[in-house]
Amino acid sequence: MVRTRITVGTFDPLPNTRNEKLVALNIERIKYWIGERNVHVSVPVLELLGLAGLLPVHPKTFIRARDAREFIAAADAQRTAEAAAAAASQEEAEAAKEASAGSSV
Length: 105
Fold this sequence. Notes:
Layout: E1 9-12, E2 22-25, H1 27-35, H2 43-52, H3 59-103
Antiparallel strand pairs: 1-2
């Protein structure tokens, strides 16, 4: 059995100036290969085709989006806690400085 690879789209993984990763799909060829040739489609491609509106959105897409939101929320909470700790430390240092300056007068 001969296996051939046919290009039905392209993906540019590097974000452009608007922070977008561009995808170009040849929808007609994709429909042909999935419908008439019954090709095997990987999960990442199913997710992409779901986001493109060609197929229903794959359930894993929702899971990945939820995980990404949770990761971002945790990172934001950590940054906020670190900023609060740094501000408290700076306030303590300033208070100690003022106390030592007041006692030396």
